[in-house]
Amino acid sequence: MNDRSISGLLPPSPSAIEQLIAIVGHEHALTDPHDQAPFLREWRGRYVGRTPLVLRPGSTAEVSAIMEIANRKRFAIVTQGGNTGLVGGQIPAETGYEIILTTNRLHRIRDVNADAGHMTAEAGVTLAEVQARAAAVDRLFPLSLASEGTCTIGGNLATNAGGVAVLAYGSARQLVLGLEVVLADGRVWDGLRALKKDNTGYDLKQLFVGSEGTLGIITAAVLKLFPAPATKSTALVALPRLDAALQFFRAAERAAGHNLTAFEFISRESLNVVLHHVEGARAPFDTLSQPWYVLIEISSTAQIGEPDDLMQTVLGEALENGLITDAVLARSISQSEALWKLRETLSEAQRFEGGSIKHDISVPVGRIPEFVARAAPIVESICPGCRPIVFGHFGDGNIHYNISQPLEMDKAAYLKLWEPMNEAVHTLVTELGGSISAEHGIGRMKREALTHFRSQVELDLMRQLKQTFDPQGILNPGKLI
Ligand code: FAD
C-alpha cells in the first residue's frame, strides 16, 4: 500500500512550479541553490537532499492552495520548521523532486489568554518565542529543549518533542489543546479549540502530533499555559552508582511531588566531554571522582514555600543514606544557568569527539541501570574501545546512549558500524520493554528499524492511517512509515 502510493508520485512540472510560485510570490519562492542550501542539510550533515523549490507560505490559505495543487498533480511536499530534527524527517530525498514547504513565515502569535491559560501560535513560531510570550504574561509554557531558539512549535508538535520538563509537564502531546491542519488534499481542519474536556469521538489532533509531517501540515496550535514558578532550586549531585540514582529519584519524588521539575542524569565521561569542549563550562566539583551525576531541579509557585529548603532536605537525606556523595546547590540564577549549561551543551560538545552512533531510547525507569550495565559489553564487542556517552531524562526513562568512536579510529570506518550497533542496542531495549525512539521520532533514520521493532498489527494500523489521510503518499514520503 505504502510502496504503491509513493511510487505514483511525479516530479513537479514547470507549469506547476509557476503556479506554486504565484501563490507565495517570487520573493518567497527559493529556486537558487545558494538560497536553498540551509533547507537542504540538517545540522550534523548526516542528511542532505535536493529540491526544485523552497516555498515560504505566509498564511494557512497559501498552504492550502499549495497542497491542493500538489495533490492534484501528485508531487511530494516536505514540511520543514526549524530544521533541528535529529532523524532526517525534514530533509527531502536526493531525487530532487520533493518540494520543501517551510513554515518560517507562519510566525504570528494569534492570541494569548493568560487568565484562561492558553495561547494560539502559528506553526513557525519558535519555541523560545512561545516561552517568552507566556513569560510576558507571567505564565509558563514548559516545553524546553536545547534547540528552543530555532525549533518551531509546529515541529515540536509534529515530532511530539520531549526535553527536560517532561517529568512534570509531559511531552508536546500533553501541552496542546487544539490544532489547525492543512490536509493532503488542501482542505483545512479547524480544530483550534481551547477545551480541556472534549469527548466527542476520536481525538483527531493527537493523530497529527508525532506524525512527522506525514499526515497533514500543522499551521497553528492552541497551547496550554501554566502558572509560572516563582522560585527554582537547582543542584548538581555526584553518585557512586547508577542504581543509587533510582533510589535518589524515588526519594526526591516522594519529597517534592509535582515540584520535582527536572532529574537529568549524566555520566562522568559525558561531563568530561562538555568540560573539554565547551567554552566557559566549569564543573562545580574539584574533581569528577564519581561515575554519575544528576542535575536536579525543584520549582515552586510562591504559595508552597522555598524550594531551596525542600532541596536541602532532599539532598541532606540522600547524603545521609549514602545515595549521593556530594552536592552543589546553585545560589543564584547565574549559578543555576551554569549548571544547566553542562547539560544543555552535551549534544553540541560530542561533535568534537569524532563519529557518534546515537540511540534515543527509553526503558521503564527502574530498568535504566540494567540497560546501561548490559549495553556496555554489547557495544564493546561490536567496536572495542568505543566510548559510551550516556545521559538523559532519568525520570522519563529516556537515555541518550551515544557511542563515540575510539580515539584512534577512522571516522568513516566507525560510522559503518551504525547499523549493527543500533540493531544490538535496540534489541536489548526491546527485551527490556522499551522504545527505540523516546523523543526524536522515526524520520528517515529509524524507518527501517521501526518495521523490526513494532508488531505487524501496529504497522498495519499505521499504514492504514497514512492511506486514509494521504492516499497519494505526497506528504513527506519515505519518512516514518
Ligand atoms: P524540523 O526539524 O523542521 O522538522 C521535524 C519533523 O517535523 C519533520 O518530519 C518535519 O516534516 C515535521 N514538521 C515540521 N513542522 C511541521 C508542521 N508545521 N506540520 C507538520 N509537520 C511538520 N528533541 C526532543 O524531543 N528533545 C530534546 O531534548 C531535543 N534536544 C535537541 C537538542 C539539539 C541541540 C537539537 C539540534 C535538537 C534537539 N531535539 C530534541 C530535536 C528537535 O529539536 C525536535 O525534534 C524539534 O521538535 C524539531 O522542531 P523543528 O521545528 O526544528 O522541526
Automatic annotation (TrEMBL):
Residues 47-228 form the FAD-binding PCMH-type domain. It holds the Pfam family FAD-oxidase_C. The keyword Flavoprotein applies. Keywords: FAD, Flavoprotein. PANTHER family: BLL6224 PROTEIN (PTHR43716:SF2), D-2-HYDROXYGLUTARATE DEHYDROGENASE, MITOCHONDRIAL (PTHR43716). Belongs to the FAD-binding oxidoreductase/transferase type 4 family. This is FAD/FMN-containing dehydrogenase. It comes from Filomicrobium insigne.
